[in-house]
Every structure is written in structure tokens, then in C-alpha cells.
């Protein structure tokens, strides 16, 4: 009897009590407000733009006969679309008043399914037609994305681990070296059914709103809590005031990214995985630079508290202190990459000195661009555009790794690094006086 009553209560609390029917997908009403819902939310539009950009790069790679990178780009599109859908679903199950809008809950579920399936089908179709050798890696991306979606629908806080999917994308090809694509069809069908059932059982959850707001403020970057250490405390003070809005997470992330990059060399060498560790570390370091201004824009009310702290001589002093702290963050990022490159040499990676210089310059110009453009940003929409810097950095370093494997000359890459660094330094210095130029009250 208790089980029956519990099921009745749960069904009454479901966001879509009668489920989603096939006729809902055919109804024009189900797509009302779709443009406003998906493209005016900072979280979903960031992931959707990344997904579309991945398709664009895949088409460009096909045009230039570089099919080896198509699998990575299609995987990025699939994973990003899954994150966008999860973002909207977290927002839906965290809103207590969503039931007041007729059809809103059903519309969000229908639109989420349409967007997710459309991108997955398009990615698989593109792989089948133009790059059959990448089909298995794209299928792995679909499976992992669906499994992550299903897990996060059970546990809302799991969304905070979404960064692991983006870090793992370069490894999808390694996972499918000796795996035929047809072996993944049955798990795919099973996961689609699991997700379908779970979407019909969505209910309001008190943790979902906290996850949504935390993601907005911290840019979906998460690390486990650690006890404050003297080293972390000194590092946090060294990065102040750039670390003010992020908090101790910035210093903690710097240490953990460096340690993680060094430790990955052990299994990579033992199992001969040949992982692009420098690419992963570079992306994480760039993400931390982006996080400085993302959290600043999200927590803009805290600027007044920062301004009232002792140690700044007015607004000009605050601007200069923030500029110097940002420069120190870039210096520490370069040091982190240098340690990872030296560890690569110790573990037998075939890294030449020009290539190491190229990797260090990539960290330099990407950090300069991220912090310079971030200082110019006044809202989340402008900050979302900085995602392009991460994508360009990822592609730039990925193609340079392939040039290293082909034993090509690095002079062209170093010349491009030098030009980008010059532009980045100019942008970084020029943006210093434009941060809070209208005062700390106005962005």
C-alpha cells in the first residue's frame, strides 16, 4: 500500500504527468518560445554555439582533406549539445513556478529531445557519409553523452562533472581502436530507452536550482573541496584581486591541474596511450583565465566589497592591481605548462625545443586574449563569445601536434605564435583601463 501511495505522489509531482507523446512533436505549440529559451540563456547558448562550431570545423576539415580531426569535432558537437540540454533540464526541474505557465514543462522536454536527437543523428550521418573511420569514436561520444545525461537526471549535482567529458574527448579515438562500430548499437538502443523513461519521470528537485546558479557563477568549473593549506593561501594572496570573485578555487585549480598533468604521464607511459597531455593542461589553464572574468560578471555586486578593501588607491589603483594579478596568473600558467613539458621529456615524449616554445607561447597568447577580452566584457553574452578563444586554442595545438608527428618544420607555427602574442599583449594592456571605466557600480 505504501508503495502504491508513493508512486501516486510521485506521478502527481511529475512535470509531464501524462508523458510526452508523438503528437507533441508534431504540434506547433510545442516549439513556442524556443528561440528565446535556448538562445537567450548564457548556459545553453554557450554549449549550442560550441556544438555548431564543431560542425563548422568538421566541414572545413573535410574540405581541406584533414579527416583525422573530424571525429574530435563531431564528438565535441555531440557532447556540447548534451550539456545544453542538461542545462535547460536542470533549470526546469529547479523552477518551482514552472507549472504556472501552460505547456511550458512539456515544451522544454520536447525541444530538448528534438535538439539532442537532431545533433546526434546529424553527427552520425556526417561520419557515415564523409568519414566512416570516425564512426566508432562518434558513437562512443553519443553513448557517453547519453549515459552522462541519464546519470545527471538521477543526480542533479553530477552536472558539475561535465568538464570531464570535454577533457576526455581526445581519448575517444583511443577507446575505439580495436572496437567495431556495430558492437555499440545495442548499448545505444538501451541508453536511449533509459533516457526516454527518465525524461517521463522528471520531478521538481531542490538541488537543481543550486546546481544551475552555481554553474552560472562559476562557469561550470568544479573541484572537490580541500582544506586550506599554507601554500594555497599564499598562492591565493599572490593572485589577489584576480582571485577575489572565484575564491580559493583559482589557486586550488592551478595546483591540481599541474599535478594532474604530471600524474597522467605515468599511465600514459605504462600503457602507451600517447595522450595529448599538454593540450589538456593548456585547455584547463585557459579555462581558469576565462573563469576570472566570467565569475566577475556573474558576481558583479561583489565589486563594491572589493573596492572597499584596503590596499587600493581608488579606482585606478584597483584597475592596476587587477591587471598585475592577471599578469601573475598568466606567468603561473606558463610555469605550469613548462613543468608538464619537462615531465614529458623525462617520460620519453619526442618534444623538440621549438615545440616546447610553441606550447608555452600558446599558453601566453591564449591567456592574454581571454583576460583582455574578459576585461572588455560587460555581460554574459559578451563573455560567452570568449569560448571561441578556447576552441581556436584547441584546434591550433591539435594541428601542431600532428605537424610534430609528421616531423614538419615549426618555424611557421612559431611565427603565428609571435604574431598572436603581439596582438594579445596589445589587447591585454589596452583593456586594463576599460575595466570598470564607468565605476564599480556600473559594469
Automatic annotation (TrEMBL):
Superkingdom of this protein's organism: Bacteria
Listed transmembrane segments: 37-63, 69-87, 108-129, 135-153, 158-175, 244-267, 273-294, 306-323, 329-348, 355-376, 382-401, 413-430
Entry keyword set: Membrane, Transmembrane, Transmembrane helix
Nucleotide-binding among keywords: no
Protein name (Swiss-Prot/TrEMBL): Uncharacterized protein
The species this protein was found in: Shewanella holmiensis
